[in-house]
Design brief:
Blueprint lengths: L7 H18 L15 E3 L10 H18 L5 E4 L14 E5 L5
Parallel strand pairs: 1-2, 2-3
Amino acid sequence: MLLPSTNEAGALAVAQTIHATLAGLAIVHDASPHRVVSVSIGAAAMRPHLQPGGSEKLVRAANRALYAAKSAGRNGTARAESGSAPTAPVRPAPVRQTVPATSP
């Protein structure tokens, strides 16, 4: 999901709303360890038009954050933050960790 004109705080708020809404629906999913349908979200925020290759960097950062959310146990949100190391997963809050926005 792309959220134009939205900063990181706004993206994380949307992610929390998505988690809460989906949890409230309690859609049964027997194959899930959570026993209900859940969602993993990777959040990244930047102004891609301000740097060469910015759109691609934004998508890569969000994708890395998505896989970090999945690796942390699914059903959560991981955020990409430029230049920072991952933080420890937090439960039950949907925001689980921060992953670097750029590859080494």
